[in-house]
Design brief:
The protein has about 230 residues and is of the alpha/beta class. The chain is built from ten helices and six strands, in the order βαβαβαβαβαβααααα.
Length: about 230
Amino acid sequence: MIQILIAEDSEPFRRGLRALLAATPGMAVVGEAGDGAAAIVQARELQPDVVLMDLNMPGVNGIEATRRILDTSPHIAVLVLTMHEDDESVFAAMRAGARGYLLKGARKAEILRAIQATADGEALFSPAIARRLMGYFASLQQAEARRAPFPELTEREREVLDLVASGLNNSQIAARLGIADKTARNHIGNIFAKLQVADRAEAIIKARDAGMGGSSTADPKGAQHP
């Protein structure tokens, strides 16, 4: 039996949730709170499996209530059920420890599925929120790529340049990356052209100035030195 605490300041919405959960086998409402402070107290006393948490409540808001509940009872799963879908609300809820995030327009079946999933230790987000999260993390990856040294190089070319800066010769680079010697030479030629360097020595200096060259090397006797 999944024990659920409803933290919601709207009595009509609480009533609807209570009716939905009462009609669902395996789920039981063990408490209701109309504000964040009451939710914190009841969560501590009742120790429910899942807290359905609204964000916009009087007094202590849902974000702070989530944080305080999980500070003392980290095993409780907090599932946000709110009308707010802005980035600030979504990421604040995640930072506070919420395990799921649904919008109040979600279908009944979706709410029940989310309760079950969060009770089982999974994370579940409504499709709109999931798309927002994917976009956010994709933008982080792009920003990280832009911060990488020599953004004009492909990921593979940066790998090759790092090995060049570590002192490996073409054959060693090919063996390390599992590519043909000719492919390694082609990568190095492309690197020289993109970085506008004349030879291996210039490429190594430029790469090491950028903090590259930390890969472990093969036998230094076999390395090509500028």
